[in-house]
From TrEMBL:
Residues 48-299 form the G-protein coupled receptors family 1 profile domain. It is found in: Cell membrane. Keywords: Cell membrane, G-protein coupled receptor, Membrane, Receptor, Transducer, Transmembrane, Transmembrane helix. It holds the Pfam family 7tm_1. It comes from Gouania willdenowi. This is Trace amine-associated receptor 13c-like. SUPFAM superfamilies: Family A G protein-coupled receptor-like (SSF81321). Belongs to the G-protein coupled receptor 1 family. The keyword Ubl conjugation does not apply. The chain crosses the membrane at residues 32-56, 68-91, 103-125, 146-165, 199-219, 250-276, 282-306.
């Protein structure tokens, strides 16, 4: 009797018997700790990225091409904050929501991650042009072109992943092995497309561009030092210095992004794509999602304007008339 009760306690749906999935059994204290950590990350991710969105949207001085790319990244990271809620629900290995919500979770996660990847590529291109071709930057990278690029990035991600997950969208729950399971099916060809679109192709572009930027940064830094020694430090060098600082800040974003993204693709490649059980990928998936919290944290340390904006927002100064004209740079 005791053994039977113990077995039932390990099932997601005890009344369904053998057709139910088994729970991941943890001690009560460990489960509570994990729930608190994941819930805190979700709240922080949503809050910090919302602050970035409000800052760039409200203050007109921040309406530049580079900041619009940061706004796109913050919006995708903001949506990822909500995906964290689903990961919290999967902690014990059981999915208690409907099959439709399971597919929605998978598609939203993929779309948000894809938009983040696309935006990081756009940021890399932006920094490459700013550092390597500063004379033509203002004509090549305009606010309107940045907006068009962002819209295309979002549209392509939504269309692409709706197509890749079409079998799951048409037949939600079809690939579940037991009650309480949340498994999505990605055919091998779709998996390869996903790998190229969201990892190999964009990461190659990012690495090549940032290697080029790094080479230019080093050469410009040496040139600046020689100009300072000769007493020929002009405004142009100061402009270059601000661009180099921006490149360094966004370089940190890119490196952290790659560190968080790579383990997920290594695991999905090793499993051969096909049926992906969400609970079995929870650690590497959480690493990808955790990147969405790290981005605004990086801004706090690297961008003085973000700290000024946060003070204005939290002190409710943005509610005053004309606050959008304030120079936060």
């Amino acid at each position: 009797l005791t053994m039977s009760t113990y077995d039932e306690a390990e099932l997601c749906y005890p009344h369904l018997g053998n057709s139910s999935c088994r729970k991941i059994v943890r001690s009560h204290s460990v489960s509570v700790l994990l729930y608190i950590i994941l819930s805190s990350i979700s709240v922080l991710t949503v809050t910090l990225n919302l602050l970035v969105v409000i800052s760039i949207s409200h203050f007109k001085k921040l309406h530049t091409a580079t900041n619009f790319f940061l706004l796109s990244l913050a919006l995708s990271d903001f949506s990822v904050g909500f995906v964290w809620i689903f990961q919290t629900l999967l902690l014990d290995g059981c999915w208690f929501l409907s099959e439709g919500w399971c597919v929605f979770n998978a598609v939203l996660t993929a779309v948000a991650a894809s938009i983040s990847v696309g935006t990081v590529v756009l940021i890399s291109v932006d920094r490459y042009v700013a550092v390597c071709d500063p004379m033509h930057y203002s004509t090549k990278v305009t606010a309107s072109r940045a907006k068009i690029s962002i819209v295309l990035c979002w549209l392509c991600s939504v269309i692409c992943y709706t197509a890749l997950f079409k079998d799951n969208i048409k037949h939600p729950g079809r690939f579940n092995t037991c009650a309480g399971d949340c498994t999505v099916y990605l055919p091998f060809v779709s998996g390869i497309v996903h790998l190229f679109l969201d990892f190999i192709f964009p990461v190659s572009i990012i690495v090549v561009l940032y290697v080029r930027v790094f080479v230019v940064v080093v050469s410009q830094a040496q040139a600046m030092r020689s100009h300072v020694k000769m007493g020929k430090f002009h405004v142009s060098q100061k402009v270059n210095r601000s661009e180099l600082k921006a490149a360094r800040a966004l370089g940190v974003v890119v490196v952290v992004f790659l560190m968080c993204l790579t383990p997920f693709f290594i695991v999905t490649i090793s499993t051969g794509f096909a049926a992906i059980n969400t609970s079995s990928l929870i650690f590497v998936l959480c690493l990808v999602l955790f990147n969405s919290l790290l981005n605004p944290v990086i801004y706090v340390f690297m961008y003085p304007w973000f700290r000024k904006c946060v003070k204005c927002i939290l002190s409710l100064q943005i509610l005053k008339s004309g606050s959008s004209e304030v120079n936060v740079l």
